[in-house]
Amino acid sequence: MNSSASSQTWSQRFESALHPAIAAFNASIGFDIELIEFDLTGSQAHAMMLAHTGIISAAEGEQLVAGLEQIRQEYREGKFQPGIEAEDVHFAVERRLTELVGDVGKKLHTARSRNDQVGTDTRLYLRAQISQIRRQLLDFQAVLLRLAEQHIETLIPGYTHLQRAQPLSLAHHLLAYVEMTQRDWQRLGEIYQRVNTSPLGCGALAGTTFPIDRHYSAQLLQFESVYANSLDGVSDRDFAIEFLCAASLIMVHLSRLSEEVILWASEEFGFVTLKDSCSTGSSIMPQKKNPDVPELVRGKTGRVFGHLQALLVLMKGLPLAYNKDLQEDKEALFDSVKTVQGCLEAMTILLNEGLEFRTQRLNQAVTEDFSNATDVADYLAAKGVPFREAYNLVGKVVKTSLAAGKLLKDLTLDEWQTLHPAFEADIYEAITPRQVVAARNSFGGTGFEQVQKALATAKQRWSAANQTSVQSQH
Ligand code: ARG
Prior knowledge:
Layout: H1 4-10, H2 20-26, H3 29-32, H4 36-52, H5 58-76, H6 89-101, H7 114-150, E1 155-160, E2 163-169, H8 170-195, E3 197-198, H9 214-220, E4 225-226, H10 230-235, H11 238-264, E5 272-274, H12 292-316, H13 329-354, E6 355-357, H14 359-365, H15 373-382, H16 387-404, H17 413-419, H18 427-430, H19 433-438, H20 448-471
Parallel strand pairs: 3-4
Antiparallel strand pairs: 1-2, 5-6
Bound molecules: arginine.
GO molecular function, one term: argininosuccinate lyase activity
Main location: cytoplasm
GO biological process, one term: L-arginine biosynthetic process via ornithine
């Protein structure tokens, strides 16, 4: 390692080289290399702005842009692999540029600091990642919508407190996750607007003495706006925290679905069968087939929450403006992005081809419980019995039926009428699971008619979102 190179990076003020362990401790190249393509693009825009404003000549600007492009090629071909002597991706690029284009390379950093540079890179990076995650959310929804379409008529027990509550259309259950991920998609779109602000030209903290044009470089990078205050521009990480909030909520949603799939795949529930392509066996128990994918998703959720917490704590005590603490934002962000992207991909595959709903068993499950009890009370209430009175009466019936080992459908008409004279023969039809579901025809409810409508709306919304996501690809 050439540690004397590190001391030369800063200025002649330094007389001796960094201690090798401190150089390694200080270096971020091990992880911020992830930003390289965005660093190159940001630097190209900066060079063009310098030429545009006459701070450097047009020819110099072109040389810088071409040199940066050559580094991009080298990197893509695996030929540019800077080590820790470079400290970080920004220095690594600048050094290589000077090797490639000579002294003009040393002009790149005119009117710029690594502080506004790293902020620019991080925003460009996050912008691209947000677009990808939004795309993935739509792909995930597409699978849910296809499954919902297939399972409008499939019934599944609905739970509160994990106790059988009322039966549902399976499509209604699946569409709940479409709604959650729709909010995720929307939220990321709103956050994107704030990520899409340029700090380039804020300098180290106070702006610059050069006649730069921040709007020009921002426009080249397709930023929608520029930071109005240089101190805020170089030290703001709100956009990263907002992203981590949104990422955490995506993980909450994936983790809840994961938990359900894990339960559903158990012998006790038996609502889904896991396919071999998405489950693994045990090294000792030959009968086992484990739901590794949803378990990993559930497990990885904590990492993203942790990164959100880390960034909040990172920021809370920082005096203005840049502090080296901010270098710690990157691994939190990169790992969260990778985790969310990986989990979305895995869950999409799992739903698409990794599991099968056991429709017969599901339809059967809802006939074996008291989840039609509310409907008996509703039946009486519809005939004018005050609901609370009806509710109490049905509670009594459930108690005596349980004791007799019977279900509500097994009561004779005589028994019903002894309970209350308002019962008639149509009570049997009213409490079949299918009718219980169909009857919940209030807006947003599980009634088949509502579910059909909700599905149609969700499909339309998906198509519109798909259109904007295709258009907004950077
Ligand atoms: N690697 C640094 C970071 O990620 C770049 C900015 C360094 N700025 C500074 N003033 N030391 O934060």
